[in-house]
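I'm curious: can you give me some protein's one-letter sequence along with its backbone structure tokens because I've never seen that pairing?
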Amino acid sequence: MQLISQQNWFGKYQPVATPVKQPEPVPVAETRLNVVLRGIAFGARPGAVIEEGGKQQVYLQGERLGSHNAVIEEINRDHVMLRYQGKIERLSLAEEGHSTVAVTNKKAVSDEAKQAVAEPAASAPVEIPTAVRQALTKDPQKIFNYIQLTPVRKEGIVGYAVKPGADRSLFDASGFKEGDIAIALNQQDFTDPRAMIALMRQLPSMDSIQLTVLRKGARHDISIALR
């Protein structure tokens, strides 16, 4: 009898595994932080243009927002994920209506430009402090730590006020002045939001950039060496 019982004539009993119900993903709430995602650039090091308190700053994954204790967790094509107070929140790209304000108000920029000197005063790339040059050579996107661009609104965005960052050495060495308004980047209309995105994409391979600024009614081209 023992031999027969060991033959498993009707097959060996296999317990049926009860399927484990996977929890449904919890939707990530949109952040309530007073910040605006203006643009996203992809490349070897994706970056996000985030506006805080009227100032735009470029952030990389893992960096902390300047005015909030929030960290960039992920950078996606139309949003970024923030870690804030132990929770993950979503910051979506600003609606098209916000980003096209500058494009639809190009006439305002043209009117100001017509009042300026026809030929801007050009400048060759100036020598910048060694420590700054080394930092920019390692990561050109760090330029926004030295020079801040704040949208100037006049019936929409008409340019960017150029201001020094926490370290103003590059601002002073490049010849910027308080009150300068940037209206073009590498001869491209800087009031078009796409110009900022293009700058972020191209920065890693650029040796210098040229900002056209309005200063007391005159246009000035200021070149900044990145290497």
User: Anything to note?
Assistant: Confidence is low (pLDDT under 50) at residues 96-122.
